[in-house]
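Board notes, transcribed. Complex of a protein with zinc ion.
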Amino acid sequence: MTTLFTNVQIFDGTAQATRAGSVLVDGETIARIAYAPETIVPDHATRVIDGAGRTLMPGMVEAHTHLTWASSVEKIYHAFILPPDELEIAATRNARVLLDHGFTSLWSAGALGDGIEPRLAARIAAGETPGGRLIPSTLERSPEGDDGVDTGDVFNGRGPEAMRAFMAYCAAQGVKAVKLVISGESALKPRSHTQILYTPEEMDAAREAAQAHGLAISCHAYTDEAVDLALRAGARIIYHASYISDAMVARLAALKDSVFYGPGCGVSVAALEASPPPHIDMSAMKASAAERMDLERVLVPKLKAAGVRVLIGGDYGFPFNPNGRNARDLAHFVDHFGFSPVEALAAATGLGGALTGQRVGQLREGWLADLLLVDGDPTADVAILQDANRLSAIMLGGVFHKLTLPAATPATTH
Ligand SMILES: [Zn+2]
């Protein structure tokens, strides 16, 4: 099946302005891109979609996904830990909710149950349930006795041997990205962000084992010491890093071709906005969020200026920050971190795609046809991506998940 989008403004996933043109999709890939005045002449079997000036862009990549953090724009859960069967249902729903909102690739930053995400990723890949391309993870790992983030993990013993056993266990489960919680979390336990939960020996073991099993490592790290450990473990992406020094910024800049960074600001902004009922105490979370946003407003522009690849994704899945609102991160990048709309879009598409290592996130010939047809110009205002009704079409691997415009073939119209 071939599909031709005509009369569209093309945003290609890099930090460049849109250009008018047309795009031909053949099977699961982008076969041809023609910029005006060049055109593509469809054959008789090609379905043609007149974009009428809409923007055609790559599907978005959520670089810090928590599908098992159950709450979404469709259903709010007031318990964080759900029974296993309900957790599986919520994760399945959330994959579809994120796709409905334009996210065609999902890099998991940890799950609340073992096996759920590898199973879900397989079901999505098989076309059994709708969702973006999921890089699955498992329980976020923090060592026994440390309560920075309570994962309930049974594989949380100390020492290199325990780390190697955890990595082998993740690989056997089908996990692709392992999440290591290196710093404590002040939002959950006040002032714990300076706490360090691992030893250098454990990080060395993590690096070796991850390489042996072909696993990527994602790290929750706030301080220089924590980011140093994350780099020692060979982390592919580092989250937060709010408290790092200029010296560490320089170190990350030197590693800009191998490591990604995600501030995870969505949850901070949402925590500051939240007005919970009196019996829910969010004061520690709000204080932590305010402090981090103040630091990140200075830090993130520095990292960007140094060439570090900064990605969207912000711990969506809490009742006050539900899954499905993930595109808010783009506006946060513009409002708080000095990104231009086009730079925020590139972070959400091309750079996120690079994280996954798949041919996604850019509109390029031969790359996977994960596409959004947007009613409006997100390069002028990224906030329009928060409105799923503005997504006139959502295509994943050449197949429409959503299409609100008529499709005609030359054979039927002439
Ligand atoms: Zn997270």
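The chain has eleven helices and 16 strands. The domain at 60-326 is CATH 3.20.20.140 (TIM Barrel).
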